[in-house]
């Protein structure tokens, strides 16, 4: 599999110094909050209020678009578009599986540590736009959707990194820009404060790197590349497809239709490869 070899080679070139940038960014954010005396929950929320209201008002003008985009923060939706890589580039899935576990751990630990209230919990609900179900509770920091999005995008970013500098810059910019559009939909639908999604994105990047480096060193997910385990994926695809059919009957949004189509195509391809073995 040419694509899988390309991915393996790209991952092999990565150095642990890639962790420096996200750690520096987190430190900068921490220093900024400290300088503004905003390390308490209340002040953390208040210092972002005007930015939240502005971004929410602007993005909230496109509720259908924002609602569709924000669904990509659901791992079952985003990963539905990547199932096909089980056949063509299983190394990507080896990295994604470990990265997803890391992102889940970070999300649970940090949400329980900070206990920041969501916008709907602390602001007047009539002062901003809420799209879809109102997100409430004390679990706003970091944004779990943002962690998921950038975890997956980081794995893809380095999997398909090009050699030429000009193309590399364009590729990195395109992936990061796309990721930011997706994660800021969480502000657009009224579910998160701006720093929630920025910090979540950085945590997601770190999680993606952890997944890549772990897949390089450990072979715990090598079975993904073994065709005899394809029935497991076939079963998961069928279950996921049924869940999307239920969602489509309940909420008619194009993102669910596209995810279902992707699952059907992937199911056909995986069954075809499995039968040919």
Automatic annotation (TrEMBL):
The keyword Protein biosynthesis does not apply. CDD domains: PAP2_like. It comes from the Bacteria. This is Phosphatase PAP2 family protein. It comes from Flavobacterium bomense. GO terms for molecular function: sphingosine-1-phosphate phosphatase activity. It holds the Pfam family PAP2. Residues 91-212 form the Phosphatidic acid phosphatase type 2/haloperoxidase domain. Keywords: Membrane, Transmembrane, Transmembrane helix. The chain crosses the membrane at residues 12-34, 69-88, 95-115, 135-158, 170-191, 197-216, 228-246, 252-271.
């Amino acid at each position: 599999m040419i694509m899988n070899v390309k991915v393996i080679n790209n991952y092999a070139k990565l150095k642990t110094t890639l962790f420096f940038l996200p750690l520096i960014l987190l430190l900068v954010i921490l220093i900024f909050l400290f300088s503004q005396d905003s390390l308490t929950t209340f002040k953390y929320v208040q210092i972002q209020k005007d930015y939240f209201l502005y971004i929410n008002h602007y993005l909230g003008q496109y509720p259908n678009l924002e609602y569709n985009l924000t669904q990509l923060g659901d791992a079952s939706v985003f990963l539905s578009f990547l199932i096909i890589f089980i056949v063509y580039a299983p190394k990507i899935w080896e990295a994604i599986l470990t990265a997803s576990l890391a992102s889940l751990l970070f999300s649970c630990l940090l949400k329980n540590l900070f206990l920041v209230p969501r916008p709907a919990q602390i602001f007047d609900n009539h002062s901003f736009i809420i799209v879809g179900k109102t997100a409430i509770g004390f679990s706003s920091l970091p944004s779990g959707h943002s962690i998921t999005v950038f975890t997956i995008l980081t794995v893809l970013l380095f999997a398909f990194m090009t050699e030429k500098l000009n193309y590399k810059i364009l590729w990195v910019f395109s992936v990061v820009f796309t990721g930011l559009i997706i994660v800021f939909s969480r502000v657009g639908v009224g579910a998160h404060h701006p720093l929630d999604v920025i910090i979540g994105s950085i945590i997601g990047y770190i999680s993606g790197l952890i997944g890549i480096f772990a897949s390089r060193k450990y072979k715990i997910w090598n079975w993904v590349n073994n065709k005899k385990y394809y029935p497991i994926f076939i079963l998961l695809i069928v279950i996921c497809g049924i869940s999307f059919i239920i969602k489509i009957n309940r909420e008619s949004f194009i993102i669910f239709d596209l995810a279902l189509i992707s699952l059907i195509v992937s199911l056909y391809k995986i069954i075809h490869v499995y039968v040919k073995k």
